[in-house]
Predict the 3D structure of the following.
Amino acid sequence: MKSSSLIPMIIFVACAGFLAWVLAGSQSLITSEVSSDEAGQTALDAPDKKDPNGPPPITEPIGTAPKGMVWIPGGTFKMGTDFLVKPGKPNPDRIKLDEYPQHEVMVDGFWMDITEVTNTQFAKFVEETKYVTSAEKIPKREDFIGIVPDISLIPEENLVAGALVFNEDFDRKNFRDDYQGWEYQAWKYQKDADWRHPTGPDTSIKDIMDHPVVNVTYEDCLAYCKWAGKRLPTEAEWEYAARGGVEDEKYNWGNELVPDGKYMCNYWQGDFPLDRQNKDGFLNSSPVKSFPPNRFGLYDMSGNLWEWVSDYYRQDYFFHSPKRNPKGPDDWLDPAEPEIEKRVTRGGSFMCNTNNCTGYRNAARMRSDVTSPCFHTGFRCVIDTSMIKKSGK
Ligand SMILES: [Ca+2]
Ligand SMILES: [Ca+2]
């Protein structure tokens, strides 16, 4: 292997699975400015340990609706899926083992951002705090310890700031999708891509301020949440909110992906990555509120961007999840990449389609490297009642 190709290989080798594979490894190098303990996660640290079922879920809102948020009344729902496909059988919905088993979960009510955090909102945060995102920082060689066998082989010129984007120039002539990790061919690590430059230094957010912010890491999300007085949703809160009070639906609007020919979310039409039909009108991100909201009034809970949630990722978590307000496992484990810290992202993105990840399904989960900025991943925030009581608002 030529040394100049090492960084891309780090990205690719470090990731396994679906699109999240390419999230890993590229910037396991970001120094922490805001720890999770400091970042509005306090409410997550107060589980009801006395009684796992506890009192009925909180359904009534406290206070008035914060700007841009909607009340999600607490309740009980079936999380995950029981439609696990046996090996060798057709699996057109690309259902994965980590969605199984379906299990009953109770969540207390909370306020949730109606949309993904937009460029306008993130710009205000950066303007006030002078925050520098992960993608804008130059990686350090030492941050690859444990990920790369010999960090001395990483060439200096490859230690550059950037993010993971679609590789428009992948080798179409020699493209194959018959081996594990074929998705890698369609991704690249782009120097100087960051939230202000979604796909590279020559791109800008000037005309897309109403699009969701991209290329943000988990740490970046925590910093924003702290500034906003909010927190990331748990995975259970996120799925409960996405389902909108209806059980066993494939999508948050029903069971048909394109009912009556109407596109209900921003995803990829055609076989990924060769055939990019763009029938829904958006190749990459779309302005928030471009597609119909779900039953709770939330936009883009399917598609547009993957959204960070606060839970660590473990493939087997649903076998062990507590019933009330589950907050994820105590540590992460993606068997394919046990050395890489991963958390869950939900909802799919404009890069998802029917021949690949189908992340826009209600039950679909993704595991993502917490330190990798990516042009199809963003976030939204929540506020729970304990945070309101604590702040006195
Ligand atoms: Ca699209
Ligand atoms: Ca989304």
